[in-house]
Structure formats: structure tokens, C-alpha cells
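quick one: 1,6-di-O-phosphono-alpha-D-glucopyranose bound model?
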Amino acid sequence: MAQWQEVSEKSKLHPKPVGLVLQYGTAGFRTNADHLDHVMFRMGLLATLRSLNTKAIIGVMVTASHNPEEDNGVKLIDPMGEMLTPAWEVYATQLANAEQDHLISVLKDLARKESIDLTNREAEVFVGRDTRSSSARLSDAVLDGVTALDGRNKDYGLVTTPQLHYMVCCCNTRGGYGKASVEGYYSKLSQAFIQLTKSAPNRTDDQKCLLVDGANGIGALKLREMEPYLQGALKVSLFCDGTGGKLNHQCGADFVKVQQNSPKGIVMKAGERCCSFDGDADRIVYYYSDDHGRFHLLDGDKIATLISTFLKELLTKAGLDLKIAVVQTAYANGSSTRYLEDTMKVIVRCAKTGVKHLHHVAQEFDIGVYFEANGHGTVLFSKAAEEKIQQLCDDSDGERRGAATLLKNSVDLINQTVGDAISDMLLIEAILAIKGMTVQQWDAIYTDLPNRQLKVKVSDRRVIDTKDAERKTVSPAGLQEAIDRLVERHQDGRSFVRPSGTEDVVRVYSEAATQESADALGHEVSLAVYRLAGGVGGEPKP
Ligand code: G16
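yep, here:
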């Protein structure tokens, strides 16, 4: 076929370094940008085949999200705006790692297995990218892959990851989810936010103010673009807006969560609400500094608690019997899980790290609130739940109608395709306004157990295998027993380890009754990982 000839010729312009092997990680491929040109070209090919396979538009986002500026990566978006289905992750890995001479046979094999009609010319792929210096040339490589297989493309250029997810969903639902443009996104979310905050008419200017750390990335750019649409309903002071600092360097959601400290250089007044986005604006964490200058973090667990409390209260007022659940990962603070289960009496589920896993579990409920502790998450409403809410808006009156309308506006504000820092931020701001709550009152809902997150370098992180939603290790031999022994020595101790799917490290999480104890446990477990899982670069220091 002439097509294969074209692919073969073009692939020579995007050669694979011989012997380089990459794994499809937590959110796609991610490594140093210099090693990714061939992967991008091939993901353009893959997305085109996936588009033919699903008869729908597929998205390809060039970003390495929270990773440093010199890395890059790719996230693939399925028809409804969700992440690429796991079955195709296997094809993606095979394609990315095929040596040059085998590329065509791997593609043919994939097309045969999935019964893809290659004479069809209806494939369409949406492409977007973050602000990294390598992203423009890498997104050109994706576009090359799409055209090599005669696919159509639409290049959205600089967009946040959740914006591209939104575009894909809008087009595949023929506008049912909204208008597939950045203006459509800004209008939809802003209108919903303005409607919601009308229920809190007495907000002072101070209460409308929010300090936002844009991680020196795409989120800053897009939030600035969106501001006029908000018509003063939120007053954003943007810092780390990309004009001075480096992407994700000493700022951004990952830095703030892991360091449990504010971004470098930010000046916060006591009690002032602040939040940080990550490098592609799909995560958010909140924080503030108290009267004694002490830093307080409100992470994904606190966000999930705030949102689920709000929704549950509205369901009660509206008299709607819908099943609501919160989905977390092993990183969820023990206090949050206890609060949700024992005080709020909501169903709590634990999934493996990676929003694709949480998303899937959340879909089992009428309303599924899912958040990773790192601030990555959203809320999913089943079709039936949305219909019941709409019906109540139309047919009821008084308090029930009021509650149903707030629920309806929340549905419109939430980006249900994936975690979205901008949409989450607006929802949190609206909830705080409606409930008349300060950030301190939100923080006081429950007290986090002190915790620590560490990284350990090993020669091959794949030696670590886990089970039970990553809460236990099954290999290497002896590691889980060592962790169990260490945990026993600390009051309220809990710890687990897992290989990162975005960085070349093993992650260690620990929590305990005091910060000293959580730190000590984290260090002890790091040493066990280093000794039993092939640590490199010197033993971890306390
Ligand atoms: C990605 C995933 C998240 C995950 C994070 C860290 O986030 O989308 O679900 O929590 O990586 O994953 P790991 O611990 O495997 O490195 P992002 O914001 O970097 O795309």
C-alpha cells in the first residue's frame, strides 16, 4: 500500500535511537525531551489508527506536566475525553519501541488485530501542547505521524491538558458537552461560576481575591486569557506566570505538595487563600499561612472532602437519592479516609495511582468524586444523575429547586473529562463563597496525619511490584516484611512504596502520629528500598 511507503519514508525523519526502550507510564510516555521525537511521530500514527478504530476524534497532548522543563511527554485522549484505554497502552509501547525496520509490521499487526479499515480516510486527531521549549517541535512530529497515515488534524497549539480533553469530548458529542474552542471553554465555565456565586451575593472584594501560582506554565497563560470572562466574580493575583521563572522550578502543585511549603518567592498575608497549578494545569492544591507564619496545605484529599460535603448537602436539600462516592489512592491521608467514612458516611474506594484508574472506579456511582492527594481529580455524574438534576430544576420549586439549580450549575462548572486545575479552582471558590467559609474553616474539617513523600533512585524500578492498590509490595522478596516491621515501631504508622510512572524513581510514602515519626519512618523505609531493590547513588540521608 502506498500509505505504508509514505509512513516508512517519513519515519526516517524521526528515527528511533537504536536500543532505546520506553515504557508507557502513569500518564503516557515521559522522559528527557531529546529522546522523544520518534515517540511523538509514532503516537501520531497510533492516534490516527485509534481514530479509525473508534470512528471518533482522538487527542494528543504534548506535555510532561509536573516534570522539569528539560523533560517532555505525551498524553493520549480517547473519544469521551478520558485517557487512552489500557488495551491500547500495550500497542503504544510496542509501537514506541519497535526498531526502525519493524515499524510497518507492528502497525500492520495492530490494524489486523483491531480490524481497522485502512481504506477509510475519516481519521481526525486534535493536538495540543504545553509551554516547554521542546513542545513545538515535538508536536510537529505528532502532526507528521497523523498526515503520514492520511489523517486530518486540528492543531490547538498552546492549551492546558484539560482544555484539550474538553475539545475532544465537545466534538465527539457534537457540541453536547460544549463548544469546542478555548472561548467555548471559558464561556461555559465562567457562566456556571457566575451563576453559582450569585447565591453568595454579599461577598466582599477581599473574599473574591485569590493568589494563584501558575507554575510558570500554560495554566498561567490560560487563566490570564480567561479572566475577562469571569467579569470580576473572581480577582486573581497571578504569580509564577512564566514571565521570569522556570517551569515547575520551586513552584507549582507538585513542589508545594511534596515540600509541604509555599512556592519560593511568594509573599502571603496571614489567612490569604493561595493555590498552585502544575505544569499542564491538571492539578491544583490550596494553602495558606497562619498568624504565626505556619504553612497549611489543603491537598487533593481536603478538596475531595469539601466538594463531596457540598454535593451531599445539596442532594439532601433537593431530596435526590443518588449514590455518591469518593475515590482516593494509597497516598490519601489516613485522617481524610476516616473522616469521609466515619463522619460523612460516604462510600470511599481506593484505586491505583493514575487518574485513569480513579476515573474508572468513579464511573460506578451516580456521583463519583475522585482526587489524588497530589490535587489531580474531578467529579463524574452519571447520565441518569444529570437527568434527575435537570428534571428537578424544571419541575420543583422553593428550597428543592434552589438546591437542584446549584447542582446543575456545578455540573456545568466541572470538567468531567479529567482533573482540571482551572475548573477545580472555580468550583472550590464557589463552594467557599456559597458556604461562607474561610480557608481556615475548610482546613479545620479534619487534621491531617503528619506525612512525608520521598524518592529513592534504584538501577531498575521495575523490580518493585505491588498489589492491593499499591498498598503492599510483592517484590523484591523481603521488602514488604521489612516495611511492616518498621511501621509497627511508629504510632499510627503507615507506609508504602511504588515505582513512579513518570520519573525514574521509587516513591516512598509514610505517615505517623508526629512529623518526626513520619520523617523517621520515611527514611527507614527508603533505606530498606535502597538495600533490597538495588539502590544507586549512595544511601538516602535522613
Ligand atoms: C501524572 C498522573 C497522575 C499521577 C502523577 C504521578 O500526573 O496523571 O495521576 O499521580 O503523574 O505519577 P507517578 O507517581 O506514577 O510518577 P501529571 O500531573 O504529572 O501528569
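Residues 2-158 form a domain with the Alpha-D-Glucose-1,6-Bisphosphate; Chain A, domain 3 fold (CATH 3.40.120.10).
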